[in-house]
Write a structure and sequence with these properties.
Length: 420
Amino acid sequence: MDNINAQNRDIKSFPNRNIKKSSKLDNVLYDVRGPVVEEAMRMENEGIKVLKLNIGNPAPFGFEAPEEVILDMRTQIRNGQGYSDSKGLFSARKAIMQYAQLKNIPDVTVNDIYTGNGVSELINLCMQALLDSGDEILIPSPDYPLWTATATLAGGKAVHYLCDESSDWYPDIDDIRKKITDKTKAIVIINPNNPTGALYSKDLLMQIADIARGYGLIIFSDEIYDRLVMDGEEHISIASLAPDVFCVTFSGLSKSHMIAGFRIGWMILSGNKSAAKDYIDGINMLSNMRLCSNVPAQSIVQTALGGYQSVKNYIIPGGRIYEQRECICNALSGIPGISYVKPKAAFYVFPKIDTKKYRINNDEQFALDFLRKKRILIVHGGGFNWQQPDHFRIVYLPRKEILESSMNQLADFLSGYSQF
Ligand SMILES: Cc1ncc(COP(=O)(O)O)c(C=O)c1O
């Protein structure tokens, strides 16, 4: 009893402490879900309806998971109650291995495949296992900002190389070369690209592979949109062109199977694995520490990747994603002072605003003002580590009528807009 009283006294004698976030987060930016999104949530809490053109999440826009995927999960759910092997179920990894073979990625065994709670978890894991303080990693600008955020959180330095709008948003090879130092450990490419919708050519990928080979860099290739390519073009995995370079290739089912909420992604290790043995040991340790990825979600990978691919119907003329791309591009073409590169893949477009015409010097403010005035949520270019205040990203997942009317709203908003 005395002891208990003593404990209580001790607890009471602690002052009220401010609970602070870790200083590790001080340099981490993740503005795709930053203040503008918070304002949108505040508006929604007040009962205001907001059109969300900010997240690449197909389900809320009426895209449904393929029926056989749902059936498969229903049938197998009872088998998914326990942890799986930390890398994932054999059946899932075998299917991903065969997928790697179809993409001509050489020398991949089941052992080289890791499933994840989305690609997101695996990106974080790879950065944590790789980067020490001061290590540099080349990341595109604009980027999918999770790459920059996780590299920074891991203690590394994200060095941004330029993607060139005037060259179909292709990475600027000279800029990549210029930014390599003796601290550079890896290069990240996002192909097909978020936020630009670019799809990289074989020639460009060979040039990037040559750089990685020459400087001994790891290639991280984020290919989550590889099955969402339009206009009859073919997606090429850079790992297929670099059998001698250590590559980590990421993909998953969030986008191609419209099941972002199931949280299922994977990564494939290929190329010079013996040179990366120590790093792979680190990856294995972190993979074990998270126990495993969602097992019911893993159980559908084999069904999802094999056979009929319903996503193909969305990306051909007459299909929703294809037609919505045409629609958003036409609508943007009609707005004075807006230009864009037509996306070839995924479901994003990254238009440029004439900032002189509209007197804009802060792209986040622009997104915030547009949200407040028109109740439409977009992401400003800065959210993708784009340094100029002259871009924004639109997710063109909503149906055509909604896209058309939202672009009319944008034109109307811009016609009376000025920041200074
Ligand atoms: C380029 C890119 N990589 C990774 C992800 C994360 O996907 P997942 O749902 O598999 O975590 C996204 C999601 O938008 C993305 O656009």
